Amino acid sequence: MGSGSWHMEKRDSFRVEPVRDIDNVLENGSLSIIVLGASGDLAKKKTFPALFNLYRQGFLLPEEVHIFGYARTKISDDELRNRIRGYLVSDKGASPKDVEDVTNFLQLIKYVSGSYDGEEGFRLLDKEISDNEISKNSAEGSSRRLFYLALPPSVYPSVCRMIRHYCMNRSDLGGWTRIVVEKPFGKDLDSAEQLSNQIGELFEESQIYRIDHYLGKELVQNLLVLRFANRFFLPLWNRDNIENVQIVFREDFGTEGRGGYFDEYGIIRDIIQNHLLQVLCLVAMEKPISLKPEHIRDEKVKVLQSVMPVEDDEVVLGQYDGYTDDPTVPDHSNTPTFSTVILRIHNERWEGVPFILKAGKALNSRKAEIRVQFKDVPGDIFKCKKQGRNEFVIRLQPSEAMYMKLTVKQPGLEMSTVQSELDLSYGQRYQGVTIPEAYERLILDTIRGDQQHFVRRDELKAAWEIFTPLLHRIDNGELKPLPYQPGSRGPAEADALLEKAGYVQTHGYIWIPPTL
Ligand SMILES: NC(=O)C1=CN([C@@H]2O[C@H](COP(=O)(O)OP(=O)(O)OC[C@H]3O[C@@H](n4cnc5c(N)ncnc54)[C@H](OP(=O)(O)O)[C@@H]3O)[C@@H](O)[C@H]2O)C=CC1
Ligand SMILES: O=C1O[C@H](COP(=O)(O)O)[C@@H](O)[C@H](O)[C@H]1O
After folding, report:
1. 299 and 166 in one domain?
2. Angle of helix 156-166 relative to helix 119-136, nearest 10 degrees?
3. How does residue 501 score in pLDDT terms, banded at 50, 70 and 90?
4. 73 and 177 share a domain?
5. pTM for this one?
6. Burial degree of 139 (CB within 10 A; 0-12, 13-18, 19+)
7. Are residues 157 and 264 in the same domain?
8. If DSSP codes are grouped into helix, strand and coil, which group holds residue 226?
9. Domain encompassing residue 99
10. In a domain, 289, yes or no
11. Do 339 and 317 touch, CB atoms closer than 8 A?
């Protein structure tokens, strides 16, 4: 390499063995994946595309796997395949290999129609699965059945009962039956506990995978590595150094087409009580004694149990103008489409540090990020406060990145300071690396029996304990959402609350993702 030229080093050779700490064995034999609610939105947009990507990467072997769609809608195998086809690869970039992969994948899918509470449909489903197991099971194989409930939670109890009675795996050689349940898992503490009891009577906790797709995002999965494998963070990650933490979710579109569902739940149940709270756990938890799923989940539960009751003056609710124009939303809906909530963790590490959770629909941008703001430097000889505080930002999406905002000398002859950043932008640093979709990883985890990135029953209970009193006050109309303009930052009161909580915005500083 000639002097003066830059060289982008390929680091593939530094790749290490995957870090996993679970006690499962390598399994083979027939694998049946049953998508219940196969006619629905989640199934076509997320579940089947995730299965397709796993298939393409060799994680689902055609000689072992068969996929079943189940729903009430009366359609043929081919009709289901045609509904899904367009979501598997983008129209623009489909190569002949993509087309061939899609065709082969779709041939693995069979559709069974039936109700969610009648034995007839589930007996038929069981027969189809069994026939396929007989045709695919190698002598030493074991039968594995994964039921993915892409369904409204109202039908979970009856569907689980039907699976338990008619569709469990019956292999004498081992194998398993697992169920994946989607959020929202309950509407408050009581309903969630009731649902947990109903499902808990039918399945062991080790068979239940409560999915929260934020736990499958690349940079969420990176949080434990960042915090516990890097010496620089260890001494800084506490109340002595950190002023506040923000965990933010913004969407630049409204409830489009999902108004009926959304109005029953609202932004706190849809995003904050699950996705953002799960992220908070990983940011705030203590170091687990190992990477075993139970050790990690034990630590998450401890953090949740240390959260103080939410105070009304630390909450701002908003509803975007035009939300009630949706015919499925009542005219006088009190449902928030935006909320900022401050959580306070009562423990030695975090006492006094506000965790600001903010989520909103129909805002001015789409992004999700964690923003850790550090305290001011004591005895600042450079007078650089006006340039802002140190911040460590983890951008979950879009354009995954981590960057540290820090003060440096302005290059040049003068001694003056300026805000800059140390930037690890994934698109630039990991060129050519495809970041898997959250659902892809999580489905693979269920096949491998790894519950680390799934919500355990006591975690769920602790999460509902935090938000249920506030949610009931909102449901009773004691707290009202403030109006905001679609395409704005949300209600101005939310920014005022941030300031009151001690967040100092760096005016005039905008992080620009580096270009390739
Ligand atoms: N869509 C998304 O982006 C996301 C969805 N989720 C969750 O995933 C689950 C499925 O979501 P989604 O696919 O959007 O839901 P859908 O409303 O599309 O429902 C899925 C299927 O369930 C059946 N169904 C719908 N309503 C009822 C009902 N009242 N009683 C019985 N069956 C019904 C329908 O199938 P049929 O009539 O053919 O039986 C429908 O095709 C939900 O729990 C949702 O909260 C979670 C994250 C994101
Ligand atoms: O669970 C949900 O998540 C999506 C946002 O998911 P993302 O991965 O695109 O950030 C949200 O739109 C939806 O309301 C909610 O139910």
Report:
1. no
2. 50
3. very high
4. yes
5. 0.93
6. exposed
7. no
8. helix
9. 31-182
10. yes
11. yes
Ligand 2: residues within 6 Å at CB? 213, 251, 270, 368
Q: How far is the CA of 205 from the centre of ligand 1 (A)?
A: 24
- What amino acid positions are annotated as catalytic residues? 275
Does the pLDDT of residue 9 top 80, yes or no?
A: no
Q: Which residues contact 378 (CB under 8 A, 6 or more apart)?
A: none
Residue nearest to atom 41 of ligand 1 (CA): 40
User: How does pLDDT run across 189-226, given as a tens digit for each residue?
Assistant: 999 999 999 999 999 999 999 999 999 999 999 999 99
**Cα separation, 75 vs 112, whole angstroms:** 8
User: Which of the ligands is closest to the CA of residue 266?
Assistant: 2
The answer to whether position 108 is within a domain reads: yes
- Residue 244 sits in the same domain as residue 371: yes
Instruction: Looking at 285-357, list the stretches that DSSP marks H as alpha helix, in order from N- to C-terminal side.
Output: 293-305
- Point out which residues pair with 360 in neighbouring strands: 250, 338
For residue 78, the domain's CATH number is 3.40.50.720
Q: Quick check: is 210 in a domain?
A: no
Are 141 and 224 in a shared domain?
Answer: no
- Which ligand is closest in space to the CA of residue 159? 1
Among 161, 182, 203, identify where a domain stops.
182
Distance between start and end Cα atoms, the chain:
21
Q: Are residues 167 and 253 in the same domain?
A: no
Same structural domain for residues 243 and 149?
A: no
Q: Which residues pair with 109 in a beta bridge?
A: 67
The answer to whether the CB of 188 falls within 8 A of the CB of 472 is yes
pLDDT of 26 above 60:
no
Residues with CB under 6 A from ligand 1: 37, 39-43, 71-73, 116, 150-155, 182-184
CATH number reported for the structural domain that contains residue 257 in this entry: 3.30.360.10
Residue 188 lies in a domain: no
Structure tokens given for 234: 């260890």
Q: 487: how many CB neighbours lie within 10 A of its CB?
A: 11
pLDDT digits (tens, 9 = 90+) for 107-145: 999 999 999 999 999 999 999 999 888 887 655 557 899
